[in-house]
Amino acid sequence: MTVTPQFQGTHLFDRLCWAKENLEGVQSDYRVVYEDKIDECAKILVPDPNWMACALQGGILPPVQVYWELAKDEAEEGFTKHTRGYLLHNTEPVEAMTEEQALEYLIMKDCPQHVWRDYDSGNKPKMVICRKEQLPATREWRNAWKISEELATDETVAA
Amino acid sequence: MALGKIKADTLEHSTAGSLDTQYVVKGSAKAWIHFNGTGTVAIKDSLNIASLSDAGTGLYNCAISSDFSNANFSTTGAAGENDDSGGNRSLGLRAKTSGTQNVRGFRDGVSADDMVEMCFQCMGDLA
Hints:
The complex is a heterodimer. Helices cover 33% and strands 9% of the residues of chain A. By secondary structure, chain A is an alpha+beta fold. Chain A has one domain (12-144). Chain A has a three-stranded antiparallel beta sheet with strand order 2-1-3. In chain A, helix 3 packs parallel to helix 5. Chain A is globular, with a radius of gyration of 18 Å. The termini of chain A are far apart. In chain B, a hairpin with a 3-residue loop joins strand 1 (10-13) and strand 2 (17-20). Chain B has one domain (29-123). Chain B has one helix and eleven strands. In chain B, strands 5, 6, 8, 9 and 10 form a five-stranded antiparallel beta sheet that branches. In chain B, strands 4-3-11-7 form a four-stranded antiparallel beta sheet, with no helix packed on it. In chain B, strands 1-2 form a two-stranded antiparallel ribbon. Chain B is elongated, with a radius of gyration of 17 Å. The A-B interface holds A 2-3, 5, 10-13, 16-18, 20, 22, 25, 27, 31, 40-41, 43-51, 54, 61, 67, 70-71, 74, 79-82, 84-85, 88, 106, 109-110, 132, 135, 138-139, 142-143 and B 1, 3, 30, 33, 35, 38-43, 45-57, 61, 63, 65-67, 69-71, 97-99, 114, 126-127. Strand 2 of chain A pairs antiparallel with strand 5 of chain B, so a sheet runs across the interface.
């Protein structure tokens, strides 16, 4: 089994290069279907295989809160460039995750917060994690896909 | 694995001159992705990418792992169908932040479309 070097303090990009050279990519069978705007179709988040390998390996990725901090900085008026990039590199990396935990991390990193903070509080869910076989087999009417209002685990989640 | 390190400011060829290593560091792509935008969208290979969101016909939102220092990084890309027939395909750039780049695939420069071969790379300074 490949042992992750002690990476705290190493630039995140260097860690990702190490991972690409030393870890096999992991194609996830899962997808995250979410609706972030009422007048737009459902979006489908695909985890990157190299990123997923890093998440499962552990000791490489920074805590997700680091990305929130950087996003806050970027949203400030007058932002010109990141001055707290060290958070990505110096914060203690997260331990190995399960695939489910990795998906939760990715949702909190790459989906809008208003989607995942109250994804199940409205009349219908705004976000669903599904297996990729549960997505429609063809992309016909792709721009009209919405999350199905009545969901069962063995059914297609978007149509 | 030991992390070997060579520190050098210059690379020198025996006859062809020398190159400041800053050219290599600053001039390399810091993030790239190659994905299939048809069917159930799938990432074929990448570097420094966390996820890709299929946002509709021809629309894809890409999230980066190690953010750029700001949104002024440079992106170039291409789209195609691994096929010599049909019209011209291209890849357009849409919104971006220091950690995201959204793109759109076009057929004949007009209509958004999904394509088998979609790829782009980003160059710039990392945070």
